[in-house]
Amino acid sequence: MFDRRLIQYFDWSLLLLTLIISGIGVGLIYSSVNSVEAVTPSKIHLKQLSWLGIGIFIMTCSFLFSYKKLDRYAPVIYGACAAMLVAVLLFGKTVGGSTRWLDLGVFLFQPSEPAKIGVILLLAHYFAKHVKPWGMGIRELIVPLVFVMVPFSLVLLQPDLGTALLLLLIAGTMAVFAKIERRTFFVLLAAVVILVPLGWFFIEDYQRTRILMLFSPESDPTGAGYHILQSKIAVGSGMLYGKGYMEGTQNILSFLPEQHTDFIFSVLAEEWGFVGAAGLLILFLLFTAFGLNIAYGCRDDFGTLLAFGITAMIFWQTVINIGMVIGLMPVVGMPLPLVSYGGSSVVTTLLGIGILLNISMRRFVKD
């Protein structure tokens, strides 16, 4: 018999917010590619609509069953994601010097996107069974560290430093949320402070250059600093209310790079100004608040950790993308959730939101 409480506890506000942000994304993608003078107008906004349709279908399917079943299958899902990352290194398609995609004939698929969900599921599965009132120590954290380092290393080899670091951020946030012993926390913090500078010697030359450009993009305005400079010009030129839809000069004159993917927030800021940019930020803050509300309202540890992990994934991805666009973080190739063009990113994000809605529906139901 159908339980009416599933409808009662369904988070309609989160669903509406998801559709609003997705709609803004389609509008910005259309503007970003059709404001540029081109021989043939681009129709990638229609492709984005197709991916949104697929993503909404998968999102709907993801809350038709109890999220608690994911606890049982978390290791299998994680293993499948890791296998796809290995397949990318063996058979992947190389684009722009990076091997991140599997060519499935009809479309290209980026396995590092669903790998985020796989990591979140396995960490929620592990932490739910090992969390202690006084917190986890070093011994309890070794296993989840291994869980994270496997996809981290595989993604780093593609190379995709941005997604690899995002996996670490998600894992670290989930571990702190699950609770770490105070002494262990400070030991790990000290280790991070020591190891991060050492990482400088293990990254690629172009990655070092991107980090340096964060502090002085003017030193190479037509080379490595071009992306940051043009993006900051676009954001700043929008002023308070912007130049108007499809009227951004940085976009029209093709000065703005990757305007429909990583730097789509620059298009928004130029066309709609501070008001439009702040409006989108408020929508993402509301999304984070709704996600945290679902996490804190859940009655079981697995659901709480899973909801928190998905919320953290979208939150950190948003922070990194916008930080990159306004020159506060290095350019690492991070899409803005639901807004940037990209099928794998959109479908993965909607899958995560579907799981959030699933938890919201069943967080008060004992089954």
Overview of this structure, please?
This protein has 14 helices and three strands. It has 367 residues and is mainly alpha-helical.
What is the topology?
Layout: H1 5-8, H2 12-34, H3 44-62, H4 69-91, E1 93-95, E2 98-103, E3 108-109, H5 112-130, H6 138-156, H7 161-178, H8 182-199, H9 205-213, H10 226-237, H11 249-252, H12 264-297, H13 301-325, H14 343-362
Supply the number of helical segments.
14
Helices and strands, in order, run as HHHHEEEHHHHHHHHHH
Residue share in β-strands: under 5%
Termini Cα gap? 13 Å
Shape: globular
Kindly give the count of domains.
1
The Rg value, from CA coordinates, equals 21 Å
Order of strands across the biggest sheet? 1-2-3
Largest sheet: 3 strands, antiparallel
Q: Work out the helicity level.
A: 55-70%
Tell me, rounded to a whole number, the average pLDDT. 88
Low-confidence stretches: none
What is the structural class?
Answer: mainly alpha
- Assembly state: single chain
Summarize the entry for a quick read.
With 367 residues, the protein is mainly α. The protein is 67% helix and 3% strand.
Features:
67% helix; three-stranded antiparallel sheet
